[in-house]
């Protein structure tokens, strides 16, 4: 499989385990993201540390994850973005709408802080 899924208490970590997030990988990832949403997952982190190439179908999978999390009232973060992938994200002007952190630990911290902020605002 080209990615692994680790469900935690407050978030689910999806690790892309291939150098290319492309038409070979993206359809399976999209399917798994929809399944996660149907299972009630609302906070997703996608770790791209091993990914050095991304095409439009890979970007589409990332945007689907972002949309699913927003619809569920959750948070979506990508982390470990390599320079070639970051260039594509920047050219596509998605860096202004996506939450991007350097490491998975920072992504986890981002989600926990976002959860705390939502709890405070709900009171």
Please outline the helices and strands.
Layout: E1 3-7, E2 12-16, E3 20-21, H1 26-38, E4 44-47, E5 53-54, H2 56-71, E6 76-79, H3 83-91, E7 99-101, H4 104-122
Parallel strand pairs: 2-4, 3-5, 4-6, 6-7
Antiparallel strand pairs: 1-2
Helix pairs in contact: 1-2
Spans of at least 5 consecutive residues whose pLDDT stays below 50 are: none
CATH homology-level superfamily? STAS domain
Query: Measured on Cα atoms, how large is the radius of gyration?
Result: 14 Å
Write the H/E string, N to C. Answer: EEEHEEHEHEH
In percent terms, what proportion of residues is strand? Answer: 15-25%
How many extended strands? 7
Helix content, binned percent: 40-55%
Task: List the strand order in the largest sheet.
Answer: 1-2-4-6-7
Content-based structural category: alpha/beta
> How many structural domains?
1
Main beta-sheet annotation: 5 strands, mixed
End-to-end distance, in Å?
Answer: 42 Å
CATH topology category name: Transcription Regulator spoIIAA
Which architecture does the CATH hierarchy give at level 2?
A: 2-Layer Sandwich
Average pLDDT figure? 95
Describe the structure.
By secondary structure, the protein is α/β, with parallel strands linked by helices. Helices cover 46% and strands 20% of the residues. The strands form two sheets. It has a five-stranded mixed beta sheet with strand order 1-2-4-6-7. It has a two-stranded parallel ribbon with strand order 3-5. 33% of the residues are buried. The model has no long low-confidence stretch (mean pLDDT 95).
